[in-house]
């Protein structure tokens, strides 16, 4: 004990970093980094789990959808609108001056090449996430002939682009591919 | 701290004396809400709502813990388990209605408590910290109430969860990943329901903790009072017990009459019929509205319909809605008038009532469909709301000539009091 005390006093007298300072900084940094590392699982557990992520692709048979018709499918537990556009609807969408739109996109950019009549979008209003009307039989399509969100009155056109109301963006086009002429794989 | 003339706790017998030496809990209670806490003698009934809010928290915790014994937080069975509580569990219907209407009662009481604070400027020095903690409690209450409303997993629950978490999606860059992280998925589902249940159970106890800080901060300067004049002498105060325990007890009786009338005769008055339809992710109810206590803030959210320079309308709405509450944090420094009570501030008093009407208008618009004329009315009312706090309040404070204050609380109650004058100015003698 006595020897220890004498070492301490002599060390204290010296200028610069003492052994204790080093131990203090090393211990606190080690505990700090360890503590921060513990946050990783605590934060990460909130993110979508493996089974939720496993639902991230869906195959849908579209052979029964006639021009002018639309269906609601489910992708990631959210509605997807698959719509077979009529030539008139395609013409109406192409007539619009793209630069005049809130979220400027042409119908070609929103569909696959050679399959311009297949409009596939999420059925989730970009305002606050309601499901717009217009995909079901007899539902209101809004003044632009596409979709109409009853929650806050956003109107989408025949290319599902936002034309009127509070929504900031066009209906989202999910990633998808045609696996054959009649089957589409979303996600 | 307390006033020097506060009654001192005296253990009544050997047992309480033994306890007082080992763990002075009875002494703590005595000094906090007993005869050891001197309170201004002139408190009116607006000062009842703090105790009533505390009662509501206890009511919510007791009924909530019981409901949790019968409820299942799983998207597959949550709705059915709530119906099971309503139909099968003994007294389940009453406990659930007590909890659902208890939330509304809690907000009624807390809004009155907050408006008391507005009128009597309870937020002014030396009571800023009490006010700031109160705003924190209010924010925690809003989060708790929102998550509780999701649990029955009806249509309004589901779409409410979707819309409110959608607000976070408005934040630039991190918004969408943040929303997915909060929900644990791409739409509200099992993960979201489960975590909301967990947090809905936790947060009331966090609230209880902040309430302890709120009361701790209150006991340093002592309670405010309707004149806004600080306590000067013993004649200005009466002990909390029995004077205010009695007054609060009477207030509690009146409160319970009204609460029970709603609970037993109109338990669904404040709810939405849509929430008795099981959650359906593929169909949105025609008219989504939150519970009535969120309406003023919901109206502010929806008031922004056009982009503001480079900021999208949706983000503006979200920022405005949160700012509507965050602005309360700055209230102690926005209102610079040295006079506290609205009774002595003629100009401030008028604007206080206009603000109250403005909030009522916002509330009405928030519950109405998002169509004209409600959108325009809520735009004007939202603008006035911020104008009140950021412009009118500082301006009124600087130009207003307050009415003369009474010398002391005793004088305000009993007329001129010679002994109060002598006690208050020992240096002058």
TrEMBL record, chain A:
Task: List residues of the Rieske domain.
Answer: 87-185
**Assigned keywords, A-Z:** 2Fe-2S, Cell membrane, Disulfide bond, Electron transport, Iron, Iron-sulfur, Membrane, Metal-binding, Translocase, Transmembrane, Transmembrane helix, Transport
Q: Which cofactor does it need?
A: [2Fe-2S] cluster
For this chain's record, the cofactor binding note is: Binds 1 [2Fe-2S] cluster per subunit.
**What is the main EC category here?**
translocase
Known EC number(s)?
Answer: 7.1.1.8
Reactions the enzyme catalyzes: a quinol + 2 Fe(III)-[cytochrome c](out) = a quinone + 2 Fe(II)-[cytochrome c](out) + 2 H(+)(out)
Q: Which Pfam families match?
A: Rieske (PF00355), UCR_Fe-S_N (PF10399)
- Membrane topology, as annotated: Single-pass membrane protein
Q: Which family does it belong to?
A: Belongs to the Rieske iron-sulfur protein family.
In its miscellaneous comment, the UniProt entry states: The Rieske protein is a high potential 2Fe-2S protein.
Provide the function of this protein: Component of the ubiquinol-cytochrome c reductase complex (complex III or cytochrome b-c1 complex), which is a respiratory chain that generates an electrochemical potential coupled to ATP synthesis.
Q: What is this protein called?
A: Ubiquinol-cytochrome c reductase iron-sulfur subunit
TrEMBL record, chain B:
Its keywords, alphabetically, are: Electron transport, Heme, Iron, Membrane, Metal-binding, Respiratory chain, Transmembrane, Transmembrane helix, Transport
Mark the transmembrane ranges: 49-73, 93-118, 130-151, 163-184, 196-217, 249-266, 308-331, 351-371, 383-399
Where is this protein primarily located? membrane
Where in or outside the cell it occurs: the entry states:
Membrane
InterPro entries, per the entry: Cyt_b/b6_C, Cyt_b/b6_C_sf, Cyt_b/b6_N, Cytb/b6-like_sf, Cytochrome_b, Cytochrome_b_C_euk/bac, Cytochrome_b_N_euk/bac, Di-haem_cyt_TM
Q: What is the annotated signal peptide range for this record?
A: none
Topology of the protein relative to the lipid bilayer: Multi-pass membrane protein
Q: Which CDD domains match?
A: cytochrome_b_C, Cytochrome_b_N
The prosthetic group or cofactor this protein requires is: heme b
Q: Can you give the residue ranges of the Cytochrome b/b6 N-terminal region profile domain?
A: 15-227
For this protein, what does the record note about how its cofactor is bound?
Binds 2 heme groups non-covalently.
Q: Where is the Cytochrome b/b6 C-terminal region profile domain?
A: 230-407
* Record's function text: Component of the ubiquinol-cytochrome c reductase complex (complex III or cytochrome b-c1 complex), which is a respiratory chain that generates an electrochemical potential coupled to ATP synthesis.
Query: Which family is this protein grouped under?
Result: Belongs to the cytochrome b family.
- Quote the subunit structure annotation: The main subunits of complex b-c1 are: cytochrome b, cytochrome c1 and the Rieske protein.
Instruction: Tell me the protein's name.
Output: Cytochrome b
| Species this chain originates from | Novosphingobium jiangmenense
């Amino acid at each position: 004990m006595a020897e220890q005390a004498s070492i301490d006093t002599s060390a204290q007298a010296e200028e610069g970093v003492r052994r204790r300072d080093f131990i203090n900084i090393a211990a606190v940094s080690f505990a700090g980094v360890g503590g921060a590392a513990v946050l990783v699982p605590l934060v990460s557990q909130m993110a979508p789990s493996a089974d939720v992520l496993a639902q991230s692709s869906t195959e849908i048979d579209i052979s029964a959808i006639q021009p002018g018709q639309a269906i609601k499918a489910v992708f990631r537990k959210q509605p997807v609108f698959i719509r077979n556009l009529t030539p008139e609807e395609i013409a109406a969408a192409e007539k619009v001056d793209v630069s005049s739109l809130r979220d400027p996109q042409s119908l070609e950019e929103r569909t696959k090449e050679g399959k311009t009549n297949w409009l596939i979008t999420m059925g989730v209003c970009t305002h606050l996430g309601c499901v717009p009307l217009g995909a079901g039989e007899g539902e209101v399509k809004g003044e632009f002939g596409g979709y109409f969100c009853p929650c806050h009155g956003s109107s989408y056109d025949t290319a599902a682009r936002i034309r009127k109301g509070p929504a900031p963006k066009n209906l989202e086009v999910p990633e998808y591919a045609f696996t054959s002429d009649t089957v589409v794989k979303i996600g | 701290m307390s006033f020097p003339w506060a009654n001192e706790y005296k253990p009544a017998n050997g047992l309480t004396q033994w306890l007082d030496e080992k763990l002075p809990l009875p002494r703590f209670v005595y000094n906090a809400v007993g005869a050891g806490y001197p309170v201004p003698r002139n408190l009116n009934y607006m000062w009842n709502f703090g105790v009533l809010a505390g009662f509501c928290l206890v009511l919510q915790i007791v009924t909530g813990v019981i409901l949790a014994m019968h409820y299942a937080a799983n998207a597959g069975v949550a709705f059915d388990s709530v119906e099971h509580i309503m139909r099968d569990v003994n007294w389940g219907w009453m406990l659930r209605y007590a909890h659902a209407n208890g939330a509304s009662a809690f907000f009624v009481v807390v809004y009155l408590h907050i408006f008391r604070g507005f009128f009597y400027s309870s937020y002014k020095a030396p009571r800023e910290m009490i006010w700031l903690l109160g705003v924190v409690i209010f924010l925690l209450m809003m989060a708790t109430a929102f998550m509780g409303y999701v649990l029955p997993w009806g249509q309004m629950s589901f779409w409410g969860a979707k819309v409110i978490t959608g607000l976070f999606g408005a934040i630039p860059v991190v918004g969408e990943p943040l929303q997915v992280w909060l929900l644990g998925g791409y739409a509200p589902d099992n993960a979201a329901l489960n975590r909301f249940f967990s947090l809905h159970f936790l947060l009331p106890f966090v609230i209880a903790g902040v309430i302890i800080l709120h009361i701790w901060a209150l006991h340093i300067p002592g309670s405010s009072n309707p004149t806004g004049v600080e306590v000067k002498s013993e004649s200005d105060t009466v002990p909390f017990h029995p004077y205010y325990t009695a007054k609060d007890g009477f207030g509690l009786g009146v409160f319970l009459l009204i609460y029970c009338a709603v609970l037993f005769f109109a338990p669904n008055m404040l709810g939405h019929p849509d929430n008795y339809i099981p959650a359906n992710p593929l169909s949105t109810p025609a008219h989504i509205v939150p519970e009535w206590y969120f309406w003023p803030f919901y109206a502010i959210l929806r008031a922004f319909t056009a982009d503001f320079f480079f900021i999208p309308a949706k983000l503006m709405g979200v920022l405005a809605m949160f700012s509507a509450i965050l602005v309360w944090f700055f209230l102690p420094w926005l209102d610079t008038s040295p006079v506290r009570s609205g009774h002595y501030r003629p100009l401030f008093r008028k604007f206080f009532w206009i603000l109250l009407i403005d909030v009522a208008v916002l509330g009405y618009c928030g519950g109405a469909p998002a169509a004209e004329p409600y959108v325009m009315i809520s735009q004007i009312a939202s603008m006035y709301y911020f104008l009140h706090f950021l412009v009118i309040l500082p301006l009124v404070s600087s130009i207003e000539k307050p009415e003369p204050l009474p010398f002391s609380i005793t004088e305000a109650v009993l007329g001129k009091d010679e002994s109060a004058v002598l006690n208050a100015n020992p240096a002058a003698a």
